[in-house]
Amino acid sequence: MALGGNPVFNSKNYREQTRAAGATGGASTTYAQPMSSQALQDMYSQPSASPQQTGRMTYGDVINKTMVTLGLVLIGAAIGWTLPGLMLVGAIVGLVLGLVNAFKRQPSPVLIMLYAGFEGIFLGGLSGFFENMYPGIAVQAVLATFSVFAVTLVLYRSGKYRATPKMTRMFFIAMIGYGVFSLLNFVLMMTGTIDGMFGMRSGLLGLGIGVLAVLLATYALVLDFTNITEGVRQGAPAKMAWSAAFGLTVTLIWLYVEILRILAILRGDD
C-alpha cells in the first residue's frame, strides 16, 4: 500500500539528489586549460546536449521505467491468478521489497522489478479470489484504476489539480488517521473480535472509508507527478527515473486495491 506523498519521493536521498543536480545544472564542474578562440567557436557551434547525454532524468525515462514495472505487475498477476496459493508469498515478499526500496539510498532496478513482480502475484491472487465471487469485478477495477489515473493526470497537466502546502498537511493528517484505522481493523479481524470479510470496512462505513482512500490515492498521484516534474526540471540523475517508476507503481497498486474493495462491497450488497 502506498503511503501518501510517496516515501520514495519524500526520502532524503531523492531530495538530496534533486537539489544537487539543480545546483550544478545536472552536470559536474571541471577545470581545464584556457582554449583558443577557434576552439571556443567550434564548441559553441555544437548542438546543445540532450538530457539523456548529460545523464539527467527525463519524462521519457520515467514513462519507460513505469511501463516496465507495470508490465512485470501484469506478468506477476497472471501467475497469481493461475496459482492463487502464492498470493500470501507475493504479499509478504512484496511488502518487504517495498520497504527496502522506499528507504534505500540508491535505486536498485533489480529490487524494484522484483517488487513489481511479487506485488503482481499478490494482486493476481486477490483479484482471482474476488472474481470467483463476483464475475467481472477484476476488469471493472482495472478500468476504474486507469480511468482515475488518466483523469488525475489530465487535471494535473491542466493546472486544475495541484499540490499545495495546506492540502499536503491535511493529506498527511488524513493518511495517519487512515493508517491507524486500518491497523486497528486488521488487529480486530485477526483476533476474531469482529467478523466479516472487511471487518469494520463493510457496509456504508466501508464505502465511506473506501472513497476517502481513493481520494487520498489521487492526491498521492498529484504529489508523485509534482516530484517527478521537479526532478526533471532540476536535472535529477537519470537513475532516479527508477525511483519515480517505483513510486507511481506503489500508488497505482494501492489505488487498485481500494477500488477493488469498494466494488466488492457494492457487489456484496446486490
Order of helices and strands: HHHHHHHHHH
Query: How widely separated are the two ends?
Result: 28 Å
Shape estimate: globular
Q: Tell me the Rg in angstroms.
A: 22 Å
Report on the biggest sheet: none
Q: Regions with pLDDT < 50 over 5+ consecutive residues?
A: 1-5, 23-32
Question: How many individual β-strands?
Answer: 0
Q: Give the structural class.
A: mainly alpha
Overall mean pLDDT = 85
Total helices: the number is 10
How many structural domains does the protein architecture include?
1
Q: What percent of residues are in strands?
A: under 5%
Helix percentage range: over 70%
Describe it:
Pfam families: BaxI_1. This is Membrane protein. InterPro entries: BaxI_1-like. The chain crosses the membrane at residues 85-103, 110-130, 136-156, 168-191, 203-223, 244-266. The chain is an all-alpha fold and 270 residues long. It has one domain (54-268). 74% of the residues lie in helices and 0% in strands. It contains ten helices and no strands. The protein is globular, with a radius of gyration of 22 Å. The two termini are 28 Å apart. 36% of the residues are buried. The model is unreliable at 1-5 and 23-32 (pLDDT under 50).
Outline the secondary-structure elements.
Layout: H1 7-10, H2 12-24, H3 37-45, H4 59-82, H5 87-103, H6 109-133, H7 137-158, H8 165-190, H9 203-233, H10 240-268
Helix pairs in contact: 4-6, 4-10, 5-6, 6-10, 7-9, 7-10, 8-9, 9-10
Keywords: Membrane, Transmembrane, Transmembrane helix
InterPro entries: BaxI_1-like
Transmembrane segments: 85-103, 110-130, 136-156, 168-191, 203-223, 244-266
